[in-house]
């Protein structure tokens, strides 16, 4: 039993640390955000709400310059000031903003944002435990191997989440009568911004899979959902 004490202490430490990070993130979001009030966006978000049979969809404006959309662990949707500014200056349309909100709604509806906090806590515990075990065999290399293994696992999980959230958004946008066009055009715009060499690659892209692959996946869903194959069973 005593052999496992260091491991148990590490796991307990990882859980406490994970909780602390989640708490700190929530506090940061609370202190730097207000409800987003914009008549044009309210109109398009109203269409999403109607498709979901909800009275309205509340979006928070997060006061940071980067271009990003996020869903917090408690299910709130945030749009960054940087993203909103692109909309105000006409670089991004209201429908494209709606596609970001639809994607984040997908993360909430599919339980990703809640699970991420648990993943994050678990991830630390697994990495530390694995490092401890592996370092007995591999020495100093054990930490690196543990890091790489957990990193791969997490990347795979988050990639899957992104595709699921994209599918959810496509379905919602189609149902709302907006269509998946804005979802795809936004990806292309953000991709162009990232490639403009201004050193301000949208944060949204860094945490998400490759643009072309996402567009291809959206188009595959569109083909299935909008134009059923002629030989599809009635
Ligand atoms: Zn996402």
From TrEMBL:
* Record's signal peptide: none
In this protein, which residues make up the domain named Peptidase M48? Answer: 38-220
Quote the Gene3D superfamilies the UniProt record gives: Metalloproteases ('zincins'), catalytic domain (3.30.2010.10)
Question: Which Gene Ontology molecular function entries are recorded, alphabetically?
Answer: metal ion binding; metalloendopeptidase activity
Q: Which GO terms describe its cellular component?
A: membrane
Record-level GO BP terms: proteolysis involved in protein catabolic process
InterPro entries in the cross-refs: Mito/Outer_Membr_Metalloprot, Peptidase_M48
- Cofactor note, please? Binds 1 zinc ion per subunit.
Give the family this protein belongs to, as stated in its UniProt record: Belongs to the peptidase M48 family.
Q: What protein name applies here? A: Peptidase, M48 family
What species is given as this protein's source? uncultured Rubellimicrobium sp
């Amino acid at each position: 039993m005593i052999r496992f004490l260091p491991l148990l202490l590490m796991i307990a430490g990882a859980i406490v640390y994970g909780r602390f990070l989640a708490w700190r993130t929530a506090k940061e979001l609370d202190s730097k955000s207000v409800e987003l009030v914009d008549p044009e966006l309210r109109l398009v978000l109203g269409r999403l709400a109607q498709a979901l049979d909800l009275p309205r969809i509340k979006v928070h404006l997060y006061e940071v310059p980067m271009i990003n959309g996020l869903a917090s662990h408690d299910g709130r949707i945030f749009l960054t000031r940087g993203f909103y500014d692109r909309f105000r200056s006409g670089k991004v349309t209201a429908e494209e903003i709606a596609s970001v909100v639809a994607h984040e709604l997908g993360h909430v509806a599919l339980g990703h944002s809640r699970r991420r906090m648990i993943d994050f806590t678990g991830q630390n515990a697994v990495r530390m435990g694995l490092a401890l075990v592996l370092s007995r065999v591999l020495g100093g290399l054990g930490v690196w191997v543990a890091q790489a293994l957990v990193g791969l696992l997490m990347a795979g999980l988050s990639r899957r989440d992104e595709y699921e959230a994209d599918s959810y958004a496509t379905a919602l946008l189609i149902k709302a009568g907006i269509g998946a066009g804005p979802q795809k055009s936004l990806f292309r715009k953000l991709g162009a911004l990232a490639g403009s060499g201004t050193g301000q690659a949208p944060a949204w892209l860094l945490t998400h899979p490759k643009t072309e692959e996402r567009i291809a996946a959206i188009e595959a869903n569109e083909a299935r959902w909008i134009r059923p194959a002629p030989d599809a069973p009635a």
